[in-house]
Design brief:
alpha/beta
Length: 382
């Protein structure tokens, strides 16, 4: 959790492009040179064909590392997106710290290695027994090795009465979907803080990306109300479908202690899952573990949707019983297909659907993939 000084406009910051460049070029600061990939490893004499599905942070990090460490490999990346989104910056847009969406948007063409072949289509089906990916245009892409970095899917449709078009209006916001909606969320938060009122902050019941973002939004709302002089006139309630607000105990305890110390305190409601919204009456409905539903009125609500694996993985032989990519949590190699690795949010691992996880795990994916190409057992552990 990062505290931003809202009153210091001149505070130095690392630009999005600088952060992306440093992360992709150097990876995490880890003691092992083998993990950071500072030294090039021997290339496979047969010039293996490696397909990377997804050009988000994970796909770009893997692609750039492989282009340096396996210069003889035939690298292909599959993704139709022209723009690259710096998603950690959405929280800054949604709380008014950044005022332009340009700060979180780059061009994928500028971030991809020049040696890679970019197929501007999306993966629709995985055929791992045939070593093929079928695109949304019906093209079959063959590979020797595959890295899946598709990201995940936001499931706003699972909340009854809510449409994606509702976000950023009528007191409803969400930090997750896009830069545009993040900016509209700030407009709703800004309008709310002028008068104060009742704010509901939520958390997803599923695995989710950046589980700290809902906590950041809660802290920022609290500070923005103080700035506007309306905190005493406002009630902030946080609803968690779990018995905690964060999975790391020390962070969970710190956050709960801080919220309880505020005057007025931020209320916390455990085992409460957001299941419906009536935007006309500004009422949200939460369901507990026993299936009992309770109604909560709001003036502002921050919605965190359920999050799921993308359909191409969910409906493939590559998924685990929850739909996520079935990789070993240590090697990040697929449990049944040795020539497939996962990177980023799609992985069915117990820790971290975050950019920080990508920074730490991308070097491991690359090193372990090279190990497999060269006939060795993966050597690095996440």
């Amino acid at each position: 959790l990062v505290h931003h000084d809202l009153n210091n406009e001149s505070a130095p910051t690392l630009s999005r492009r600088q952060f992306l460049g440093a992360s992709i070029a150097t990876g995490a600061v880890i003691s092992s040179a083998a993990i950071t990939g500072c030294a090039s490893l021997p290339t496979h004499e047969d010039s293996p064909s490696i397909v990377i599905v997804g050009a988000g942070v994970a796909g770009l990090a893997v692609a750039n590392r492989l282009s340096r460490q396996l210069p003889n490999a035939k690298l292909t990346i599959l993704d139709s997106r022209q723009e690259h989104y710096y998603q950690p910056g959405y929280t800054l847009l949604a709380s008014g710290v950044w005022t332009s969406a340009d700060k979180v948007i780059d061009s994928n063409a500028d971030l991809l290695p020049s040696s890679i072949s970019w197929i501007q289509e999306d993966a629709q089906e995985f055929l791992p027994d045939n070593n093929q990916v079928i695109t949304n245009n019906g093209n079959a892409i063959s590979y020797d090795y595959l890295v899946i970095a598709t990201g995940l899917r936001l499931g706003f449709e699972a909340i009854e009465g809510l449409k994606i078009e509702d976000l950023g209006s009528e007191g409803i916001g969400s930090v997750y979907p896009s830069p545009e909606i993040a900016m509209k969320t700030w407009q709703e938060m800004d309008a709310f803080r002028q008068k104060g009122g009742r704010a509901l902050m939520t958390l997803a019941h599923t695995d989710m990306k950046c589980a700290g973002a809902p906590l950041k939004m809660t802290f920022m709302l609290h500070d923005r109300l103080i700035q506007a002089g309306t905190r005493q006139d406002s009630d902030i309630q946080f609803f968690s479908p779990h018995g905690t607000v964060f999975s790391v105990p020390v962070v969970n305890e710190n956050v709960l202690s801080r919220w309880a110390s505020y005057d007025p305190a931020i209320g916390v409601n455990f085992n409460q899952r957001l299941t419906a919204i009536d935007k006309g009456s500004k009422t949200a409905y939460f369901t507990d573990e026993a299936g009992n539903q309770n109604a909560q009125e709001y003036d502002f609500i921050h919605v965190v949707p359920p999050m799921f694996a993308v359909d191409s993985v969910l409906n493939s032989p590559l998924a685990n019983d929850k739909g996520w990519l079935d990789v070993d949590k240590y090697s990040l190699q697929h449990k049944r297909y040795d020539n497939i690795f996962g990177a980023g949010d799609i992985n069915g691992t117990p820790k971290g659907k975050t950019a920080a996880t990508v920074k730490l795990s991308a070097p491991i994916v690359v090193t372990n993939l090279i190990d497999v190409i060269q006939g060795r057992t993966p050597s690095q552990t996440f």
